[in-house]
């Protein structure tokens, strides 16, 4: 029981991070029907941006409050990563729009390789640790075997930040004219243009939103693990993509749900079975779900009135 | 409108610059030519109809006016301005609205949101007023405001497509087959609404139709398109009485 609750907390934390990345995959897929393989590396890049600015703020500028520093870092990481997301779309994907379907996909793989190598060259190949940030934990209860069920401040911060940002994001997509334009382009780009929507700009905006949420994930990842390396884009990227597919690619709530499920599967499998096979478990569940629900858990089957 | 009045109208237009003017427009899909040099004018305050068989290129002309697909040759001018190479979304900002072929309503948005999309060009100014107006024109939509577009019946979707186009208060309204697949009673309703918009609000309408009888009866002027060429033009009445038009588009029931 204690282990169960503890793993539930851990799993939800990890799942929040996956969910944030998964939104980037699902939104981009929704609007241009392309899997943005570079998204995982954008996430990794954002973790590095967060690390660099965290060090600048705490050591050079001497900001002593970690929470304040984190807040500033989060904002900076979101802004800079958005710029990267915007630039990547502009340089690598937009010129290929209207070309054959595989072209942007290949281009995305190229961007992915470029980003991880760029970071490797610029930051070195070794793991980069952060100075210890927040280490306090709250002990929720103690089991009879002496096993403490604890939730750390870090985990609370991660879950709260994720929840708040997802709420803001949800509001933007559902209630503002920007979000409406975004959804319109997703459903019918040609018609959206006929109604005066600048489709190219909306697609750019989608990349910007996806990248900024990846930056939140990157900052949270850094906070959680306290270490990041140039290769860290790949595995979380693939997991988040899996989450997006599991939840139903194209569906925003699906991406979050998928992220949480993948996070939970991973932590529970590690706790109860074997840590080596946690990825196998996550991907097997994906395979099984897709056999029975080919469009994912919340994905919509392709039936529409014409 | 009587024949005399419509001839008068045509004469009146002769001296004026047309609102929309299409000159020698050729459009291709890849290497296949769809429009083979189309000339056409729409004057302010008119209802102009374009009739023709399936695959004649009517809808292509509609979309070419909006630059998607783009005309490879020829020019399209609107209010004296060359819009041939203008991006589609900028053309939409010139107060031209289109209810396109296949209706193309956003299926996973509510009726209300679809209408909001129509109004986004003028930044939602006078949205409430316009909403009120389209709800009066199409009371059916008012009952369905919170329903998703994809769940509407075909006729309701058609109404929504027209209502959405009206939300931007266009000067020129392009309607692509508003009667397609609708019950005769609803077709009549929709044609009455088009007439009302034209007479009361002075809206200029360019109407593409296969339902030639209704369209020609309604329109001031008409064009006939056959495989990418305009083969005939004249007032609605002239075309309605033309033996060739009758034989090709009208005999065998309206």
Shape-level CATH architecture of the largest domain in chain B: 3-Layer(aba) Sandwich
Would you report the number of β strands of chain B? 10
What is the CATH fold-level name of the largest domain in chain B? Rossmann fold
Q: What string gives the helices and strands of chain A in order?
A: HHHHEEEHHHHEHHH
Report the mean per-residue pLDDT of chain B as an integer.
Answer: 89
- Which structural class do the helices and strands of chain A define? mainly alpha
Morphology call of chain A:
globular
What's the story with the biggest beta sheet of chain B? 6 strands, mixed
**Estimated helix fraction of chain B:** 40-55%
CATH homology-level superfamily of the largest domain in chain B = P-loop containing nucleotide triphosphate hydrolases
Radius of gyration of chain B: 18 Å
**Structural classification of chain B:** alpha/beta
Residue share in helix of chain A: over 70%
Count of the separate structural domains of chain A: 1
Distance between the termini of chain B: 20 Å
* Average of pLDDT of chain A: 90
Low-confidence stretches of chain B: none
Number of domains of chain B: 2
Q: Report the strand count of chain A.
A: 4
Description:
By secondary structure, chain A is mainly α. Chain A has one domain. Chain A is about 70% helix and about 5% strand. Chain A has 11 helices and 4 strands, in the order H-H-H-H-E-E-E-H-H-H-H-E-H-H-H. In chain A, the strands form 2 sheets. Chain A has a two-stranded antiparallel ribbon with strand order 1-4. In chain A, strand 2 and strand 3 (about 150) form a beta hairpin. In chain A, helix 1 (about 1-30) runs antiparallel to helix 8 (about 200-225), helix 1 (about 1-30) runs antiparallel to helix 10 and helix 10 packs across helix 11. Chain A starts with a helix and ends in a 14-residue tail after the last helix. The mean pLDDT of chain A is about 90. Chain B is an alpha/beta fold. Chain B has 2 domains: about 1-95 and about 170-185 and about 205-255, Rossmann fold (3-Layer(aba) Sandwich), CATH 3.40.50.300; about 100-170, no CATH class. Chain B contains 11 helices and 10 strands. Chain B has helices at about 5-15, 60-65, 90, 110-120, 125-135, 140-145, 155-165, 185-200, 210-220, 235-240, 245-250, and strands at about 20-30, 30-40, 45-50, 75-80, 80, 95-100, 170-175, 205-210, 220-225, 230-235. Chain B has a 6-stranded mixed beta sheet, sandwiched between helices. Chain B has a 4-stranded antiparallel beta sheet with strand order 2-1-4-5, with helices on one face. In chain B, helix 4 runs parallel beside helix 7 (about 155-165). Chain B is globular and about 45 Å long. The two termini of chain B are about 20 Å apart. The interface between A and B is medium-sized, with 21 and 32 residues.
């Amino acid at each position: 029981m204690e282990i169960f609750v503890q793993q539930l907390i851990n799993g939800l934390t990890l799942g929040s991070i996956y969910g944030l990345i998964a939104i980037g995959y699902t939104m981009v897929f929704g609007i241009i029907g392309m899997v943005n393989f570079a998204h995982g590396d954008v996430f990794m890049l954002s973790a590095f941006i967060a690390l660099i600015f965290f060090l600048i703020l705490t050591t050079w500028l001497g900001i002593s409050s970690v929470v304040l520093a984190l807040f500033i870092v989060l904002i900076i990481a979101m802004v800079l990563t958005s710029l990267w997301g915007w630039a990547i779309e502009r340089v690598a994907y937009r010129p290929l729009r209207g070309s054959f379907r595989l072209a942007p996909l290949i281009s995305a793989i190229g961007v992915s390789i470029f980003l991880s190598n760029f970071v490797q060259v610029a930051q070195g190949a070794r793991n980069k640790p952060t100075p210890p940030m927040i280490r306090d934990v709250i002990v929720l209860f103690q089991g009879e075997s002496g096993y403490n069920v604890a939730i750390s401040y870090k985990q609370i911060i991660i879950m709260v930040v994720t929840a708040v940002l997802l709420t803001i994001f949800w509001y933007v997509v559902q209630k503002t004219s920007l979000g409406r334009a975004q959804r319109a382009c997703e459903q019918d780009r040609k018609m959206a243009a006929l109604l005066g929507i600048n489709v190219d700009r909306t697609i750019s905006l989608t990349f910007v939103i996806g990248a900024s949420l990846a930056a939140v994930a990157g900052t949270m990842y850094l906070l959680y693990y306290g270490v990041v390396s140039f290769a860290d884009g790949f595995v979380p990227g693939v997991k988040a993509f899996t989450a997006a597919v599991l939840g139903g690619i194209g569906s925003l709530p699906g991406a979050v749900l998928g992220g949480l499920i993948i996070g939970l599967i991973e932590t529970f499998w590690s706790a109860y079975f074997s840590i080596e096979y946690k990825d196998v478990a996550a991907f097997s569940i994906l395979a099984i779900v897709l056999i029975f629900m080919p469009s994912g858990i919340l994905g919509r089957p392709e039936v529409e009135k014409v | 409108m009587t024949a005399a009045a419509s001839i008068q109208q045509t004469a009146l237009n002769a001296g004026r610059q047309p609102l929309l003017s299409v000159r020698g427009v050729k459009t291709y899909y890849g290497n296949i030519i769809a429009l083979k040099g189309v000339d056409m004018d729409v004057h302010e305050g008119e209802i102009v109809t374009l009739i023709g068989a399936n695959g004649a290129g009517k809808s292509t002309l509609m979309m070419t006016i909006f630059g998607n697909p783009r005309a490879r040759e020829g020019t399209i001018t609107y209010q004296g301005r060359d819009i041939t190479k203008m991006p589609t979304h900028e053309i939409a900002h010139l107060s031209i609205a289109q209810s396109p072929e296949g209706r193309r309503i956003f299926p996973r948005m509510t009726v209300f949101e679809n209408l909001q999309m129509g109004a986004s060009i003028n930044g939602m100014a006078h949205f409430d007023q316009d909403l009120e107006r389209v709800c009066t024109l199409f009371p059916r939509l008012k009952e369905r405001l919170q329903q998703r577009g994809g769940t509407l019946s075909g006729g309701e979707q058609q109404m929504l497509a027209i209502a959405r186009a009206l939300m931007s208060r266009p000067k020129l309204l392009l309607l692509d087959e508003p009667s397609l697949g609708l019950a005769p009673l609803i077709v009549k309703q929709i044609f009455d609404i088009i007439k009302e918009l034209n007479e009361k609000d002075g809206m200029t309408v360019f109407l593409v139709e296969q339902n030639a009888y209704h369209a020609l009866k309604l329109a001031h002027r008409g064009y006939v398109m056959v495989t990418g060429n305009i083969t005939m033009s004249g007032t609605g009445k002239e075309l309605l009485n033309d033996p060739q038009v009758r034989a090709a588009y009208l005999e065998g029931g309206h």
